TrEMBL record:
Organism classification: Bacteria, Bacillati, Actinomycetota, Actinomycetes, Pseudonocardiales
Keyword Transmembrane helix belongs to the record: yes
Region of interest called Disordered, as start-end residue ranges on this chain: 29-138
Keywords, comma-separated and alphabetical: Membrane, Transmembrane, Transmembrane helix
Biased segments, Polar residues type: 101-110
Record field: transmembrane: 147-167, 179-197, 204-224, 230-249, 256-273, 279-295, 302-319, 325-344, 351-367, 373-392, 399-417, 423-442, 449-471, 491-513, 525-550, 556-577, 589-608, 614-632
Pfam families (UniProt xref): DUF2339 (PF10101)
Composition-biased stretches (Low complexity): 32-50, 86-97
Record flagged with keyword Signal: no
Protein name: DUF2339 domain-containing protein
Length: 649
């Protein structure tokens, strides 16, 4: 017969097995199984006190009330991990299981539900969704709701404007009553939006309502200025109060959209109240107020919008005769650059670069208007101030590029404002050569890129004005000859400019090769091909200008072109010789040969005459013949083992 201790052990083991089965069933969402009490009936009764205690414990386990399938049971939490699952966070408190969610105590203390574990099987650890329950709103639905709310706000604002216009046309009430009614409406809308914002699900509509209210208050300030004769200083003060209140609310709600709306509303209202330098002062005050919030929250769009207002307005005020215009431009530039310096560590580099460009814009517009050395000094000073921001800690690569670009534009404008003619063009080309040398010295490509910009502008001015292409293809031609008489100053200018274009092209090509930006292959043809064409043009301009400087006659003109043709063939020979193992140079040389032949047939044969024509054809022909013979031998030698290596490439 089975002893009492053996019976107690069997009953305890049976209870543990039933607990395990029930926990597994509940973990997979199966309703509580109501176990049969047959097991208890099959167990024979014993007289021992230990056996009775064990039997009572088993009975209490089997007869306990069923727990919900998705929540914790009194003894075995149904939403815990299955047996053998790793613990995913401790829970404090008496009797708490070791696998409870992390931070559960903190969440409960703050009134938030404990987080559900991730990566669990479907139906385990989460409450079931009731049939017919609405699905969570999608992002598109939320955006549509916001759009609807803002559209309603715009329509409401338009309705206010129409009502005020209709009331004024039909004489409904006094002007003061109409203004006060609009003020009450604006305050009510702002208050109602604040009340709505207290509920999280209503915050999208609260922004639209509050924004409409502040827009209505802006309209009230404008109406008070026009209808009630409110003096401009007081109207400006009220507008700033409305803007400050709106920005404070946007800062509290952390809404960049509301802040952007406040900025736009103030920018639209400002021209209604004041004009001229006073308008710039009002927008600068608004910019300062916005900068405090935008830098605090890291908002890009409000900062850009606030900076655009005074920058664009000051750029327009420049063309007025108001004596305060220079002060307005100076204030806009200094405050804008100061704000950009403060934003270096708080806003993205692209946004800070935009702030710098907007700050410098009025000074760049004022420079040509003042003209002369004064205007050049204004532009150059703005560029140097922008370049000084490089000393601010935290300047990134993109912002560095933007600052250098702004400074380069300012210096370019200063040169063109202070100088003109070949002097201005030559100065730009000299700057290009100096920047190319600087790029090689500091091993940085950025100065070389800026040098390319100066080279491009200088070359275009040379081709169009100072060494015009028309003066190189026809005789006589302005400005080298006027009424059959040579213009020495203009010809000397053409010689100098052509020489500088040639030097700048060579300097950029060499510097690009040193910095591995220009390589003798097709990948960088977009860089060295224009430089090569400019070099050939400069060579032709230099030779023809020198010939005309010696003798401003047609004979000198034709001789000069004959020398140009021969020089092209010589350059082609050099390129072919250097291109045995560099396909790009070889192709360039062949193209130049084709260009020289085309010039012989299409230009020299038609324009030149006499000995110049003969000299052009004989010289080019002999050079090409010698070049062909020499090149053929070099290719053959390069293809022989031990002579040229690995062939012609």
């Amino acid at each position: 017969m089975t002893s009492t201790p053996d019976l107690a052990a069997e009953l305890a083991s049976l209870g543990r097995r039933l607990d395990s089965v029930e926990a597994r069933l509940q973990a997979f969402g199966v309703p509580d199984a109501q176990p049969s009490t047959a097991a208890g009936a099959d167990a024979p009764a014993t007289a021992g006190s230990d056996a009775h205690a064990d039997a009572d414990a088993v009975t209490s386990v089997l007869e306990r009330p069923a727990a919900p399938s998705w929540g914790p049971s009194p003894q075995a939490p149904a939403w815990g991990p299955p047996p053998g699952a790793p613990a995913w966070g401790p829970q404090t408190g008496p009797g708490a299981p070791s696998w409870a969610p992390r931070n559960q105590d903190q969440n409960q203390a703050q009134g938030r539900p404990a987080p559900w574990p991730t990566g669990l099987p479907t139906g385990w650890g989460r409450p079931p969704v009731a049939p017919g329950a609405p699905a969570p709103a999608s992002r598109a639905t939320a955006n549509g709701a916001r759009l609807l709310a803002w559209t309603g706000g715009a329509m409401t604002l338009l309705g206010v404007v129409l009502f005020l216009a209709l009331a004024a046309s039909r004489g409904w009430g006094s002007p003061a009553a109409r203004v006060w009614s609009g003020a009450v409406l604006g305050v009510v809308l702002v208050a109602f939006g604040t009340w709505m914002h207290r509920v999280e699900t209503r915050r999208g509509g609260a922004l639209a309502v509050a924004g409409t209210g502040f827009a209505a208050l802006y309209l009230v300030v404008a109406a008070a200025n026009r209808l009630l004769g409110l003096v401009e200083p007081l109207a400006v003060l009220l507008a700033l109060v409305v803007a400050a209140a709106g920005l404070a609310l946007a800062d509290r709600w952390r809404s960049a959209l509301l802040a952007s709306g406040i900025v736009l509303g103030g920018a639209v209202l400002a021209p209604v109240l004041v004009e001229g330098p006073l308008l710039v002062a009002l927008l600068l005050a608004l910019q300062v107020a916005v900068a405090v919030v935008a830098l605090r929250r890291g908002w890009s769009w409000p900062a850009l919008l606030a900076a655009a207002g005074p920058a664009l307005t000051a750029s327009v005020v420049v063309f007025d005769s108001d004596p305060w215009r220079i002060l307005a431009v100076l204030a806009t530039t200094l405050l804008g650059l100061a704000g950009a310096a403060l934003a270096v560590r708080r806003l993205p580099d692209g946004v800070v670069g935009g702030l710098v460009a907007l700050a410098v814009l009025p000074a760049l517009v004022l420079g040509p208007e003042v003209d002369g050395w004064g205007g050049a000094g204004i532009a150059a000073a703005a560029g140097l101030l922008a370049l000084a921001l490089l000393a601010v800690p935290g300047v990134g690569a993109r912002l560095r590029t933007a600052l250098v670009a702004v400074a380069a534009v300012a210096v370019l404008e200063a040169v063109l404002v202070a100088l003109d003619g070949p002097v201005a063009t030559g100065t730009l080309l000299v700057v290009a050569v100096a920047l190319a040398g600087t790029a090689v010295a500091v091993r940085d490509r950025l100065p070389l890129v800026v040098a390319g910009g100066f080279w491009l502008v200088g070359t275009l001015l040379a081709v169009a004005v100072d060494a015009p292409i028309t003066a190189l293809v026809d005789f006589p031609q302005y400005p080298y000859l006027v009424d059959g008489r040579g213009q020495t100053a203009e010809i000397v200018g053409g010689v100098v400019v052509s020489l500088l274009v040639l030097l700048a092209s060579v300097a950029l090509t060499v510097a690009g090769g040193r910095l591995r930006l220009v390589r003798p292959d097709s990948a960088t043809a977009g860089i060295w091909a224009p430089l090569g064409v400019a070099g050939l043009y400069a060579t032709a301009g230099l030779i023809v200008s020198l010939a005309l400087l010696v003798s401003p006659e047609r004979t000198a003109f034709t001789v000069g072109h004959a020398i140009v043709t021969v020089s092209w063939t010589v350059v082609a020979l050099v390129l072919l010789a250097r291109g045995l193992r560099r396909p790009a140079l070889r192709v360039t040389g062949l193209v130049l040969v084709a260009g020289a032949v085309a010039k012989l047939v299409l230009f020299d044969l038609v324009v030149l005459d006499g000995l110049a024509q003969v000299a052009a054809f004989l010289g080019a022909g002999l050079v090409l013949l010698a070049a062909g013979t020499r090149y053929a031998r070099m290719v053959a030698e390069a293809g022989q083992p031990g002579r040229g290596g690995h062939g012609a490439g």
